Amino acid sequence: MSKNTELTYTKKDFSSDQEVKWCPGCGDYAILSAIQTALTQIGRKREEIVFVSGIGCSSRFPYYMNTYGYHTIHGRAPAVASGLKTANPSLSVWVITGDGDSLSIGGNHLIHAIRRNIDMNIVLFNNEIYGLTKGQYSPTTQQGQITKSTPYGSLDRPFSPAKLAFGASATFIARTLDTDSKHMQEVMLEAESHRGTSFIEIYQNCVIFNDGCHSSYVDKQSREDHSIVLTHGKPMIFGSEIKKGIILDHLTPKVVELGETYTEGDCLIHDKTNEMLASLLVAMDANKAMPKLYGVLYAVNDVIYNEQVAAQVAEVKAKKGPADFHKLLNSGDTWHIE
Amino acid sequence: MSTLTEVESVVVRFSGDSGDGMQLTGNQFSNTSAMMGNDIATFPDYPAEIRAPQGTIAGVSGFQIHFGSREIFTPGDATDMLVAFNPAALKVNLKDLKKGGTLLVNSDAFTDSKIAKAGFEVNPLESGELEGYQVIKVPMDSQTIEALKEIDLDTKSKKRCKNFYALGMTYFLYHRDMKTTLQWMEHKFSDHPQLLLANQSAMKAGAHFAETLEEVVSTYKVSSAKIDPGTYRQINGNTSTAWGFIRAAQAAKLPLFLGSYPITPASDILHELSKYKEFDVKTFQAEDEIAGICAAMGAGLAGSLAITTSSGPGIGLKGEAIGLAISYEMPLVIVNVQRGGPSTGLPTKTEQSDLFQAFYGRNGDAPLVIVAASRPNDCFHMAYEASRLALEHMTPVIMLTDGYIANGTEPWKIPDVDAHYADIKHKMLDPTTVDTENWSWISRDPKTHVRDWAIPGMPGLEHRIGGLEKDFTTGNVSYDPANHQKMSNIRQAKIEAVSENIPLQELEGESSGDLLIISWGGTYGAVEMAMRALQKEGKKVSLIHLRYINPMPKNVGEVIKNFKKVIVPELNMGQMVHLINAKFGCNAIGFNKVEGLPFKIAELHAAFTQALNEV
């Protein structure tokens, strides 16, 4: 859909009249605010925007948005959104989900929505815990972590959401963080302009059940030393006082200090359209010893399911001519009784 | 020279290995009979495995056709003629062949190993156990190959024409015109001139051969049936269902969206609907049953007529989403083509055991509308009705059919759709006429309790709906105790109010008497025939066959009061009888069977007679 440049919404236009009921200090507040602000810039009318969610703390999101909104059932939001977008491709469709909702009970729908490349935005709030059910481990909880349901430590190997999305043939993979409103907005805008499924993981803090789970790479004081903000066409460098960069050692990305041995020129240049590089980045991102990645990891164009469905309908209509139910009823062998 | 005997109706069963083309052969026989003016009913009976081991009992595939010069309601209890392509087919089907009936066997298939594989200790063609039947032994493989010796084809391909050799023989025996099948072959094998020639030649050779046979003591003529004037076609239940939805979407002026996942015996509805994109039909083969219904719901929220199709196990998976559709109060049709259960059960066999699932298969008090089709061509009407009720009442509707009527074929008098299937008044708003300031998505019609339908894209009507309980007035999330009671009441009342928008229950027979039969769903044909036979005997028996199951027509209770006894025949362990007794307190008795097969007229006749004797 083309951008409507005459719209003059403010953030408030996207706030519903409902009182927001997340815990004080929850990362969700910042995400809500960033998305509401981003929506003022996407050039879409309010009535054309739909938020669909599953079950969990994050999934209460649609209630707070003054758009069309559907709070569905646990894990199934991508499936509902797939039908919605396929039936009416002119809508701007946003799926709001959490790590339990999308990676555990709804894993199947997530990978298939991504595989079909349905033109919608899937925003995953990852706090590495089940919040609404009060503190059980999730598919992204770190191994060994003590939770309500793992008093001796979690045994499960966690998912890396970006790696999973890449494996499901995602055409857009991005990561942002609840402590950086500006970055969240930039990522949302780029996701909305991407044609196809945009998969966005947000590091989100659960202040009650998993406080500080992301702190080393999201807190302002330590962030710069533990994460890289990816920019298309720019070298992968990071670090506050000591500048570091990522070089490729055979097939393995490696952190090096920049100075005499290595310079900026030796570092990997980010190319969001390069599939091979993306495979390295999602693997690197899943490695705890490596810095976390922010920004758009991968963005390419591919065929879009909802567009193909519409095209096929148009093609058949053009080929077969106007639909005639009488013709259908009388198709094949018929006989007449006097 | 054989004599010609005129008969009222005949039942023929073709049976062989699942790779022998039995469904195709049976379909040709039934098409030809319909084209010749007979009334017909068919019953395909095939194994769950696509190609079970050759020659085994498990691999037997059959197709039964009942054709007559009078109204035909069922594929028939017992067969007048059995065509058995191998010993296993004979083993499985002999018990259903009438004494004195005609048995056409492929003697080439009666080798020692195949005889043993079928479980016979000695060759049944030689043991004398077929005495009392009119046995026609024909070495079909070798004779077909011989008949096609001039044709340039490999022997294996020639052998595969034997089903048409046998069909040619049956056409001669029952004076069927070969024209329809010959024409069909021209179309089917248009790209393979050798195969066309081979199949046509095999069928003609079979017919000629039958003419020369001494064993053929009589041929049979079945005159055209006296049928309502009009144009007819054949249709099976799944096609009929699909077309009903296409027509309903047209009548409602909405696009149609099917979200579905393949499952026996419902997949044919998906196949059928996927063909008709020119009717604004979108079909979405989802990653699982849950995604099937959820995608349909998404499309429904966007303003399509939303359908999901499945069978019992799939409906189980959809349960939570059905509850959400009830909570949303949104239009949605859920089709359950019932099969034998529980669990995977008997995928290719018929049953009516998902009635309780339709009523109660969800958490919470979750009422919805339930309808059931009575025969293959009624699926069109009930699919249309299910859609109409869903759209006019903003509610999910479960439509029950079953494997028997889904795959069964019968003639269908093509309805005047412009007169009878043309107008569905859905609840979608025109946003320009709405006072958006004072509008709430949950505002209701005071009489029907039905809410408005506002969809994304409509300015000023943005709203949020969820599965959490909603405030009666604002539609916002509410945990208020009194409100939950009120909302539960209104959801119930809304479904009950549907009874004002469905026809009164028809009664077949006198309005009072000794025995009232209450049946529902796909058993109609057999129950109707059994009841007619009893009425001819002078018995005071009447029938109500339910198609609107929840809510039921308003007059059902009144009808029941005028009978001394009520019997409810069902292909389950007693579900409708339980509901009838709970609702009307009438001490109805059940007659139940769960063998994966439809009722036979004779067993119903016996059960009804016994009930009458106990009055």
Describe this structure in words.
The complex is a heterodimer of chains A (338) and B (615). Chain A is of the alpha/beta class and 338 residues long. Chain A has a domain at 11-213 and 301-310: Thiamin diphosphate (ThDP)-binding fold, Pyr/PP domains (Rossmann fold), CATH 3.40.50. Helix content of chain A is 30%, strand content 19%. Chain A has eleven helices and twelve strands. In chain A, the strands form two sheets. Chain A has an eight-stranded mixed beta sheet with strand order 2-1-3-4-6-5-11-7, sandwiched between helices. The termini of chain A are far apart. The model of chain A has no long low-confidence stretch (mean pLDDT 96). Chain B starts with a strand and ends with a helix. In chain B, the strands form five sheets. Chain B has a seven-stranded mixed beta sheet with strand order 11-10-12-13-15-14-20, with helices on both faces. Chain B folds into three domains: 3-221, Pyruvate-ferredoxin Oxidoreductase, domain 3; 234-420, Thiamin diphosphate (ThDP)-binding fold, Pyr/PP domains (Rossmann fold), CATH 3.40.50.970; 513-613, Rossmann fold (3-Layer(aba) Sandwich), CATH 3.40.50.920. Chain B has 615 residues and is α/β, with parallel strands linked by helices. The mean pLDDT of chain B is 96. The interface between A and B is large, with 58 and 66 residues. Strand 12 (334-337) of chain A pairs antiparallel with strand 9 (230-236) of chain B, so a sheet runs across the interface.
Characteristics of this structure?
heterodimer, A: 338 residues, alpha/beta, Rossmann fold, eight-stranded mixed beta sheet, three-stranded antiparallel beta sheet, 11 helices, 12 strands, 30% helix, globular, B: 615 residues, Pyruvate-ferredoxin Oxidoreductase, domain 3, seven-stranded mixed beta sheet, six-stranded mixed beta sheet, 21 helices, 36% helix
Structural class of chain A: alpha/beta
Which regions of chain B contain 5 or more consecutive residues with pLDDT less than 50? none
**Helical fraction of chain A:** 25-40%
Using the alpha-carbon principal axes, give the shape of chain B.
globular
User: How would you characterize the largest beta sheet of chain A?
Assistant: 8 strands, mixed
What class, by secondary structure content of chain B? alpha/beta
* N to C succession of SSEs of chain A: HEEHEHHEHEHEHHEEEEHEHHE
Distance between the termini of chain A: 56 Å
What portion of the residues of chain B fall into strands of 2 or more residues?
Answer: 15-25%
CATH superfamily of the domain at 11-213 and 301-310 in chain A: Thiamin diphosphate (ThDP)-binding fold, Pyr/PP domains
| Level-1 CATH class name of the largest domain in chain B | Alpha Beta
